[in-house]
Amino acid sequence: MRVAFDIRPVTDPHGVGRYSRCLLQALRETAAPDAEIVETHRPRRADVLHSPWMDGAMLHSPCPMVVTLHDLTALKRRSEHLRTGVRPRLRQLAVQRAVRVIVPTEALARDALARLGLERERMDVIHEASDATMYPRAAQEVAEVRARFALPERYLLWVGGLQHPDPGKHVAQLAATPRELPLVLVGPTSPWAHELPDVILTGYVSDEHLAAIYTGAHALVVASEDEGFGLPAVEALACGTPVVACEVPALREVLERRATFVPAGDLQALIAAAEAPQRPAPPPPAWTWKDAARATWQVYQQAVAQTAGPCTTVRSLRRPSVGGTDRALTGSRWAPRGSQ
Fold this sequence. Notes:
- The chain is built from twelve helices and 15 strands.
- By secondary structure, the protein is α/β, with parallel strands linked by helices.
- Helix 6 packs across helix 8.
- The longest helix is centred in the last third of the chain and has 18 residues.
């Protein structure tokens, strides 16, 4: 099997970048002798194309396409996240044309069913995992990272992107919530983040430094009202750090009893619970990136098998009903279901 893997997001400092890097490495380590991975978003003579992000999905892929969805927050908060124009709709249309769609949780699969009209049988739930660099660091390494980033002895931690305000993450409200312990925000920033009150910003940090920051934290706080998976929470547990989160379906699915949950939106309860926990934290889920890679190889095989034979050029994909009419996509145009 020859797989074209879109590597454009590997340099992204957010979760999609970590997903792409970790999965690509694990795919190489678990590949069969006759399998080949080509790092490109322009597939040539490939058996399957994997776009590890929604933005890379092709409207007209020359081979069966697999797309990974990480979250659908933009669709849920359309007026705040999406620019006007046709580009968002084209991205959705491209995902609808994928043969298989990978999602990290059943919660996101339900969202994709409701928001994109994807059939559940075309979606594969494959959990993500913490990177091998995420493990409890020695006291000296923690002390060194504290000195490097001017961190206090005890602190609460939040990890994510801070380039622009994201209403669903509730970062500004979290910063304004009264607390006894300092709050450290880790992630790439833009000027708006430096206006947040009473927080410590580290900016972007390396994985080694992040693992030490996790290790030294009193607890990780997750204030989001929606998540596709919640990778920082899994990473924190891998570093021995307790996790306190607002109740959202994806986090509950992934963490189960490994985290302390508070009602969604109750940031005072979140801070109170985060300042209380004692170590050791529960271990992270046992799922690894090699497990994810093996499951992904199976998705590739299924995508190829689904499009084998004389009818590979025409596929029927469902979209959400418009005006009560169920329509299917044939080739590059919409046609009534059953017209094939």
